[in-house]
Design brief:
Distance between the termini: 27 Å
Helix content: 10-25%
Oligomer: single chain
Strand content: 15-25%
Order of helices and strands: HEEEEHEEEHEEHE
């Protein structure tokens, strides 16, 4: 092979390597998940969102209870004796204390319990997966949820996914700024590399690009 052809070939190889390196997701990596070695920990306390389905039980007053009541899009709900209760942004504990305070105007020392049956509307409590995956989706966050859990729920990577260029966007609650982390989804899903599995937090967004080659 002529010398100039060799140099041309080396230059093409070097350029391709540079492009591949440039395509790698930037940003720090999160530590591997270690759920199996630790007891189940509670997640951050859930705050109620629009369209959540809630059961409200008033002890010894079933006529004042409400089974599977839906939070309206305006963030409020209604039960017997109490109209337009502001529910969005409250935890279950805060909501039951509010309702108990309102019912105290009508009955003596009401004891109220609130259960969120189906969390639907609070995006800050969801994990979103978009891009080159089987089925992009918003998933309700669960305690000790990992990237692997999320990927199983959306059907994994599609055939065009560049899984090791995926990134996770997370809001830093202290600074109010978004932080970008590198994910190695191909290593996790296609190679079974457990070190690529990381813990998720409410509000995380996983972005999976398509391969350019």
């Amino acid at each position: 092979m002529p010398i100039h052809a060799r140099f041309h070939r080396l230059a093409v190889i070097g350029l391709s390597a540079g492009l591949l390196a440039a395509c790698a997701s930037s940003g720090p990596e999160l530590p591997p998940a270690s759920v199996g070695a630790a007891p189940i920990a509670p997640s951050e306390e859930y705050t109620i969102g629009p369209l959540d389905e809630i059961t409200i039980h008033v002890w010894r007053n079933p006529e004042l209870s409400a089974d599977k009541v839906r939070v309206r899009p305006d963030g409020r709900l209604t039960i017997p004796l109490v109209q337009d209760i502001p529910a969005v942004g409250k935890t279950a504990t805060q909501l039951q204390e509010y309702i108990a305070g309102e019912l105290a105007k009508y009955i003596e020392q009401p004891i109220v319990s609130v259960i969120v049956n189906t969390p639907e509307g609070n995006f800050t409590q969801q994990v979103r997966i978009i891009g080159a995956t089987g089925q992009p989706a918003s998933l309700p966050f669960r305690a000790n949820m990992t990237v692997l859990d999320a990927m199983i729920a959306v059907g994994g990577l599609n055939e065009f996914a560049a899984g090791n260029r995926a990134k996770l966007i997370r809001l830093d609650r202290k600074t109010g700024k978004q932080v970008e982390y590198r994910l190695r989804l191909s290593d996790l899903i296609r190679r079974g590399d457990a070190s690529a599995n990381v813990m998720l937090m409410p509000g995380d967004t996983i972005i999976i690009p398509e391969s350019r080659f």
